[in-house]
Specification:
The protein is mainly β. Helix content is 0%, strand content 14%. It has a two-stranded antiparallel ribbon. A hairpin with a 5-residue loop joins strand 1 (2-4) and strand 2 (10-12).
Length: 43
C-alpha cells in the first residue's frame, strides 16, 4: 500500500509478512557520529 510520509511523499508500506524469496538484496545502515543512520548511495 502506498501512503504519504510526514513530508507528503508517497512510500510503499507493507502490512504483513515479507516472504524471504521476495528479498533481492540488503544494505547495511551504519550509524554516523551523530547517531543517525548513514544511507548508502543507491543506483
Amino acid at each position: 500500500k502506498w501512503e504519504p510520509s510526514r513530508g507528503g511523499d508517497l512510500f510503499p508500506h507493507l502490512y504483513g509478512p515479507l516472504p524471504l524469496v521476495a528479498v533481492t538484496g540488503t544494505h547495511d545502515l551504519p550509524l554516523g557520529p551523530d547517531g543517525h543512520h548513514v544511507f548508502p548511495q543507491l543506483e
